[in-house]
Amino acid sequence: MTTQSTRISQIIAPQRLRRRRAVFYSSVLLVTSLATWFMADLLWRDDGIKGLEWPLLILFVILFAQIAVGFVTALLGFYVINRGGDRQCITRSVNWDEDTPLASTAIVMPVFNEDVSRVFEGLRVIYRSLQETKKLENFDFFILSDSNQPNQWIQEEIAWVELCKQVNGFGRIFYRKRRHQINKKAGNVADFLRRWGKRYRYMVVLDADSIMSGEAIVKLVAMMEKNPQAGLIQTAPRLVYGESLYARLQQFANRLYSPIFLAGLNYWQQHEGNYWGHNAIIRVQPFMDHCALPDLPGREPFGGRILSHDFVEAALIRKAGWQVWLAHDIEGTYEEGPPTLIDSAKRDRRWCQGNMQHAWLIAVRGFRPANRIHLLMGVMAYVSSPLWLLFLVLSTIHVFNQVLDPAKHGSFEDYTSAFGYYLKVPEAFILFLFTLLLLFLPKAVSLIRVLQDKNEAERFGGRGPVAVSAILETALSVLLAPIHMLFNSRFVFSTLLGQGVSWVTQRRGAEDGTDWREAILTHGGQTVFGLVWGVSSFILLPVFFWWLSPVLAGLLLAIPLSIMLSKESLGRQARRMGLLLTPEETQPPYELRRLTQNLAECYKHMRPIETLRSDYGLLQAVLDPYINAVHVSMLRQRRPSEESRDWFSLLRHRLLSEGPEQLTSKEKLALLLDAESMICLHEELWRHPGASLADWWRLAMRQYNVLTAAPITALYR
């Protein structure tokens, strides 16, 4: 072990880690106990706790404990940052003035029907950034495609070849298309490891929208080299490229508030951190040895393949004795967020099923306590929503019972104003203020921290704009909270009822935003629920209605709010006004500037005619001799049966005589996977007289010279 790695091992001595965790858990217990005492006193004051009051108290304890965890984590993070950082952070194990030798590292990017231009321009930026560090010889790149759209597949192949030609990346940038999409992203990475894993000591896992600077990647490898017991180091990606108002809200909140939460998280978890699935470096051999994912008992959605694999892989590698760290202070790591509220909900639907599966694994033998906490927190991230909904509904029923039965519960004549109840029962007002303190103090502290540093405030657009932005974000987050509550409640109930989810591509851009039809279909039930709840509350007890108003307002405004937040025009207007700015916008790093410039140039040239657009990739693979040769060279040569040969012959005839629109996506994929068919199609297309070809192919051949006059890389990056 090196001197630096020995120093890390001494810092994370068990007794010191136990003290940190004792502070964390004791603080959570203290805060929760104090709030529980107030709540129990409120419920007890009439004639003891009974009936609905018992489930209300139990739900309150569970839910308030979750709030306390976030509050204490933020408070500890603020303490760490104010004292100049954490000396026990993994990044301090390396002397950055030294030139640390690096080991062979694979940079892997699984993709599934993603924007080809965004994927390959992102890789180009990462490749060039690594090249400028003079450490490129230690890295290989792998694009691991599970795309199941024929057009997409060919575009990816073209983009890969052209990228390799332009950066001289042959032998260093590799493209692999799986024939069968087994076990989604986890299966894609597992397949890569079976084939090529033993060639590399480390792998850096990226998402299709990930960007990492070469310096950040080199630092991750250096930290792994200096810490031989580290099995995984997770970075904290910053959200970037948000155009819609919703995306800009999310990336502003991520950038302003996350530093104290991440610092607090690292304070108590240390070398028993978590894995978030991307923008992380992994030691390959222990990952291959110990992180094979088991099938869960039963069928989906609770059984079968594990969807949210990252939490489980972190637990498995810790179970084997390897360390998992959070390098929260590493700069130069970025990702994109969903552009609209509805897209965010669609992503949460997938995550909900995966996290709910973790309920099977919390009590697995051999898992570390910290990993059990991570799994539990993942489950509670979604289960807390129906619990909050149940708590609010039971509270409403409890209040209605008191109003409808004054002889039993006492008169409510004194509660005619919004403050009447709290003047009579001051403990309720204290509990209300205490809850608000826990919810909003971390945001206030984060804002104050930025405002105290003029240079830091300027990175957010200035002290005035960042303060206004924080107020705007807080107000909108209050309105969005009940909408997310109902979304997640529905997702949890759907999972419990056995409804699984399919693997779909995440939308990266908002385009024209959410239309009224989509918003009404998605949020209509939420609005009706809020309307019925609000009207009944106002009729029976107006004071209760006003205290429910923050929840009701979000539900009643769900439809127009969803539409408004999806608009890129409003996002651009906010940027022009200096609102919701982040340091990555005011002082963009070199990698993001380069990617923005490349994408703007790329999209400017993407103008294949509309009639050919849907099957333009297939057109290229059949018509263009160069692309046909590239595609065929990447296929496995197989010997189909006579029956299969006849079927392929019929498909080829239909494709040329009827056009690609008459074939299904599966039939097109079958032809693209058969090397013999692709060779025959190319020859037959150029040999057949025009009268025997479909109109689509005659148009394609007429436009061929025009389309190929523009550089292929400008059409599809």
- Distance between the first and last residues' Cα: 44 Å
Strand order of the largest sheet: 3-2-1-4-8-6-9
What composes the largest sheet? 7 strands, mixed
**Mean pLDDT value:** 88
Using only C-alpha atoms, the radius of gyration works out to 28 Å
Query: Outline, from the CA principal axes?
Result: globular
Structural class: alpha/beta
In the predicted model, the low-confidence regions spanning at least 5 consecutive residues are 1-11, 409-424, 709-717
What percentage of amino acids are in beta strands?
A: 5-15%
| Quantity of strands, as a count | 10
Determine the number of helices (DSSP H or I, runs of at least 4 residues): 31
Helix content: 55-70%
Task: Please tag this protein with its features.
alpha/beta; 7-stranded mixed beta sheet; disordered N terminus
Give an account of the 3D structure:
Helix 17 crosses helix 19. The chain has 717 residues and is an alpha/beta fold. It has a domain at 610-715. Strand 2, helix 5 (150-167) and strand 3 (173-177) form a beta-alpha-beta unit. 64% of the residues lie in helices and 6% in strands.
Q: Would you summarize the structure shown here?
A:
This protein has 717 residues and is of the alpha/beta class.
List the helices and strands and how they pair.
Layout: H1 3-11, H2 14-44, H3 53-82, E1 105-111, H4 116-132, E2 139-145, H5 150-167, E3 173-177, H6 184-196, E4 202-205, E5 211-212, H7 214-226, E6 230-235, E7 238-239, H8 245-269, E8 280-283, H9 284-290, H10 309-319, E9 323-327, E10 333-335, H11 341-357, H12 369-404, H13 406-409, H14 420-424, H15 426-452, H16 454-459, H17 463-496, H18 516-540, H19 542-556, H20 558-565, H21 568-576, H22 583-586, H23 590-604, H24 610-613, H25 616-623, H26 625-633, H27 642-658, H28 665-673, H29 675-687, H30 695-709, H31 712-715
Parallel strand pairs: 1-2, 1-4, 2-3, 6-9, 7-10
Antiparallel strand pairs: 4-8, 5-10, 6-8
Helix pairs in contact: 2-3, 2-15, 3-8, 3-12, 3-15, 4-5, 4-7, 4-23, 5-25, 8-15, 8-21, 10-12, 11-12, 11-17, 12-17, 15-17, 17-19, 18-19, 18-20, 25-26, 26-29, 27-29
